[in-house]
Amino acid sequence: MASFDIPTIDFSPLFSTDENNQEKKQAMEQIGEACVNYGFFQITSHGIPLELLSRTMDMYETFFACSDEEKLSLPHNYMKSKQNSAETWEHLVFNFSSSGFDFCPDNPPHFKQVLEEMASHFTKLGVLLEGIISECLGLPPDFLANYKSDRSPNSLMGLHYFPATEDENTGKPAHEDPGCFTIVYQDELGGLQVQKDDQWIPIAPCKDKLVVNIGDVIQLLGWLVATLFILAGVYVLLLRRFTMLVRKFSSSVPSSSRRVVPSSPKKAIPTSPKMIVQLLTEVWITVMNV
């Protein structure tokens, strides 16, 4: 397997409100380059307490250890792969807004309070990333926020991939994320892989790092902006997958309004002509008024 590391970026300078801060400018340039060249990057000093990340993972694990009867009693938040499916997983998804979560199970206790605290941190981080990526694209800082404000709610998703058998190691197939970006926190087992230059590269889990991967919307925006000669680089979307390790528990927590869907291993942007026209129109109007 190829030797490859996705860029790791110190996020702390980006909290500065000083636009002349050289470290902030350098960090933004690093994010722009990572989006263009990799489609993935890791961030440290992101402002989310490690104790909260650990507590959230523990609560998800406790929930996933409950009986199927208890988990399936949830109205719509819980999903599980079909019994005969090659993929073996279960998801617990929460959509949230300023009014809080739509629904939360009673077990484990205090789950809702922990998730609300986590959602607050991830929302702030997501808003900051939206502004940074918008600027890296040569667009106003509020472009992405305005684009997605009325299109989809934010969500927090716990993903549990079941242990593989000795002779089966399929994991989750190659897929792309359809939204703007996903923020992922892996447990100590890991399993996340990204594709670069036709090689699948594992991303080692690290308790103080978050993984950010660029979704279809950003890739499409990069292409549209480049087409309009505002930005020379095109943001790339790397396929990713999860490998399954034998007899181990593995989970991760994507966030900031993104869901994970399976896709063909072949490179393709699953966006509709209508979406392309909408984005092209919004970019064109924005550019003409800059």
Structural overview:
Helices cover 33% and strands 20% of the residues. The protein contains 7 helices and 13 strands. The termini are far apart. By secondary structure, the chain is of the alpha+beta class. Strands 3, 4, 5, 6 and 13 form a 5-stranded antiparallel β-sheet that branches. The chain has a 4-stranded mixed β-sheet with strand order 1-2-11-8. The chain has a single domain (8-289), classed as Sandwich (Jelly Rolls). This is Fe2OG dioxygenase domain-containing protein. GO terms for molecular function: 2-oxoglutarate-dependent dioxygenase activity; L-ascorbic acid binding; metal ion binding. Belongs to the iron/ascorbate-dependent oxidoreductase family. InterPro entries: DIOX_N, IPNS-like_FE2OG_OXY, IPNS-like_sf, Oxoglu/Fe-dep_dioxygenase_dom. Keywords: Iron, Membrane, Metal-binding, Oxidoreductase, Transmembrane, Transmembrane helix, Vitamin C.
| Known CATH architecture | Sandwich
Give me the secondary-structure category.
Answer: alpha+beta
CATH C-level category: Mainly Beta
User: How many strand segments?
Assistant: 13
Strand content: 15-25%
The CATH topology annotation reads as: Jelly Rolls
Q: Residue share in helices? A: 25-40%
Give the overall form. globular
Question: What string gives the helices and strands in order?
Answer: EHEHHEEEHHEEEEEEHEEH
> Termini, distance in Å?
45 Å
Q: Report the average pLDDT across residues.
A: 77
Major sheet description: 5 strands, antiparallel
Helix count, per DSSP? 7
